[in-house]
Design brief:
Elements lengths: L4 E4 L6 E4 L1 H10 L8 H9 L8 E4 L6 E4 L9 E2 L1 H4 L19 H11 L2 E2 L13 E5 L7 E5 L2 E4 L2 E4 L2 E4 L2 E4 L2 E10 L2 E7 L8 E4 L5 E7 L5 E4 L2 E2 L2 H8 L7 H18 L1 E3 L3 E2 L6 E5 L2 E4 L1 E5 L2 E4 L2 E4 L2 E4 L2 E4 L2 E4 L9 E4 L8 E4 L8 E4 L8 E4 L2 E2 L2 H17 L2 E2 L5 E2 L19 H4 L4 H6 L37 E2 L13 E2 L3 H10 L8 H9 L8 E4 L28 E4 L8 E3 L1 H7 L2
Parallel strand pairs: 5-6, 7-8, 8-10, 9-11, 10-12, 11-13, 12-13, 13-14, 14-15, 15-16, 16-17, 19-40, 20-21, 21-23, 22-24, 23-25, 24-26, 25-27, 26-28, 28-29, 29-30, 30-31, 31-32
Antiparallel strand pairs: 1-2, 3-4, 17-18, 32-33, 34-35, 36-37, 38-39
């Protein structure tokens, strides 16, 4: 068995460890070990994934007005989805001969610039859902991203199998819910964080199987709990009568109190994992052998990855659904196998450096092919020619590597250089998970997009809006509302927004006030309630009879009696954070 090795990241210059099982995976899929640390690898891929920065332009084939992730002034052909999947064009038209005097990535970028792109990544049907991206099997959804199998979902991200939900983030199977984050199977709930199987609840943190509960934490199988105090049904309903959820000022006060005081005093389990074995990371369910990964469901043998569903043998990748053997890639589509250094594909096998390719096999350095096989730079070869040429290209990539403006070297085994991406850093999800200022991004060699001048005129300020939803008139849908941040934030603020009819009806049905922030700013506010995609080694904070800071007194004797808990773990909670972090045993002694 190979021994672990300590490496220096080519990008951040920090040490990282390549572990023994990492080498086993690299050998199995026949790729070299990485020269970048796992976090820098994730950022490099994310810089190619624009989910939320949408633009209006015309389809370069039929002339139809479309919404796309590509800026109008970008020198790329962009087709609407019907044109892109039609027989009106063929990716082989743009085929290139391999040039042995030019680095591979230079040749590939030339091809990428010529081949038509599809407007949005929606490889599966999404009826009545014009403003969704990285989405499949959705119906009547609006401005939602990385969403699968939903109906009537608005302003949400990473939501699956849900219905009638708004402003949600990383939820599964919720219905009639607002502002649920990291939740599962909730119904008629609002402002829930890490709660599952809850009904008719509001402002809960880390609660499971609860009904009619409010402003509480660490509950299990409870009903009629108000601020962590048990009441009778009549007592609970009477106390709840004094809470006016339809008032913006009341809701803002409750939210601040919930996030800054109540949640901070709660016990926090070191990691959110359910029905999972031999896993490290956060928000992992029904999985096995998943290490240093985040937001994973029903997956096995994965590492250094995020946003995985039904995935197997996936390393250093993002956004993988029903695929196997994926490395250094994102959004391979479904039913894809052996997918390397690529993105935005579907139903393909044995694909290398070939994004935007559907139902294809044995591709190297291709762009936008459909139903093809044995192609290099979009040129068709025989099976024998392809298998003879690919090893030579790999040798050429190592002998004549690409070097970017910061001196970083890209040989075979490296994902596409960030400077070749058509997107600016702050247009992509890299800004969401690893936020930078403009100065920091430019210093690190990334592009930055300054805010565009807005032509619309704000007709209603946040101060103009009625405090209570019952006072909101139907003509609010005609107003252009100014965002409370006014663009003075680092949250891709759109400075203004509109309320659509379905959204207004949702607020009235749920007795919720109108938002004062634009959808982008609301999204970033929710992101801040999640932990980062990063792990720290820490010790359990149970000091015997109470927590280290004395804020929590244990209710029962733990396995370590009056001594400090000896357990250590990997957690997404940084050491300087104020929350009380317990290991699994201590947490279960107190909460379960």
């Amino acid at each position: 068995m190979p021994q672990p090795e300590i490496k220096i990241c080519q990008n951040c210059k920090q040490q990282f460890i390549i572990e023994s099982d990492d080498f086993d995976f690299y050998k199995k899929v026949n790729v070299p070990a990485p020269t970048w640390c796992p976090e820098c690898l994730m950022v490099r891929k994310m810089i190619w994934r624009n989910e939320r920065a949408l633009y209006k332009r015309e389809c370069d084939l039929c002339g139809k007005s479309i919404i796309t992730v590509y800026k109008p002034d970008l020198d790329n052909r962009v087709y609407c989805h019907p044109c892109w999947i039609s027989d009106k064009w063929n990716g082989e038209e743009y085929a290139q001969e391999y040039d042995w005097d030019t680095p591979f990535f230079v040749q590939w970028r030339k091809l990428f610039g010529k081949v038509p792109k599809f407007d949005l990544f929606t490889p599966r049907d999404n009826p009545d859902s014009a403003f969704v991206n990285y989405a499949g099997w959705n119906k009547n959804c609006y401005l939602s991203y990385s969403v699968v199998r939903n109906e009537n979902v608005m302003y949400s991200r990473a939501v699956d199998d849900s219905k009638d939900a708004l402003d949600c983030l990383y939820t599964i199977g919720v219905e009639l819910c607002y502002a649920n984050i990291e939740g599962e199977n909730n119904y008629n709930c609002k402002y829930l964080l890490r709660a599952g199987n809850c009904v008719d609840c509001a402002f809960l943190f880390d609660c499971i199987n609860c009904k009619d509960c409010f402003l509480s934490t660490n509950l299990r199988n409870k009903r009629y709990v108000f601020e962590n105090v048990q009441y009778t049904r009549d007592e609970y309903l009477k106390k709840l009568e004094g809470i006016d959820f339809g008032s913006a000022s009341t809701t803002a006060d409750l939210r601040e109190r919930f996030l800054q005081k109540i949640r901070e005093r709660a016990l926090h389990k070191f990691a959110q994992m359910v029905k999972s074995v031999n896993c490290t990371g956060h928000f992992i369910g029904s999985s096995k052998n998943v290490r240093n990964s985040f937001d994973v469901y029903r997956s096995e043998d994965c590492k250094y990855s995020a946003r995985l569903i039904d995935a197997r043998d996936v390393f250093s990748s993002y956004g993988v659904l029903k695929c196997e053997r994926v490395y250094e890639s994102f959004a391979p589509g479904v039913q894809t196998y052996n997918y390397f250094f690529s993105f935005c594909g579907d139903a393909s096998r044995n694909v290398f450096y070939s994004p935007l390719c559907y139902s294809s096999f044995n591709l190297f350095g291709c762009v936008g092919l459909r139903n093809k096989q044995y192609c290099i730079l979009n040129k068709q070869y025989s099976k024998q020619e392809y298998e003879k040429l690919v090893p030579k290209i790999v040798q050429h990539m190592n002998a004549m590597p690409y070097k970017d403006k910061k001196g970083r070297v890209y040989t075979y085994g490296e994902f596409f250089p960030a400077e070749l991406s058509p997107f600016a850093y702050n247009e992509t999800i890299a800004q969401e998970y690893f936020p930078l200022t403009k100065e920091q991004a430019i210093e690190q060699g990334y592009e930055w997009k300054d805010p565009e001048r807005k032509e619309y005129k704000v007709t209603a300020t946040p101060e103009d809006l009625p405090d209570h939803i019952k006072d909101v008139k139907d003509d609010i849908i005609k107003q252009i509302i100014g965002c409370a941040h006014s663009g003075k934030c680092n949250e891709q603020c759109t400075t203004a927004f509109k309320i659509i009819p379905d959204e207004l009806q949702f607020y009235k049905k749920m007795n919720l006030p109108l938002p004062r922030l634009c959808p982008n700013c609301r999204h970033y506010q929710r992101l801040r309630q999640r932990n980062p995609l990063r792990l720290w080694h820490r010790k359990c904070q149970c000091a015997g009879e109470k927590s280290d800071n004395g804020a929590h007194k244990n209710t029962v004797s733990h396995f370590h009696k009056k001594e400090h808990c000896p357990n250590e773990f990997e957690t997404t909670y940084a050491p300087e954070r104020k929350e009380i972090i317990y290991c699994k045993k201590c947490y279960q002694s107190e909460v379960v």
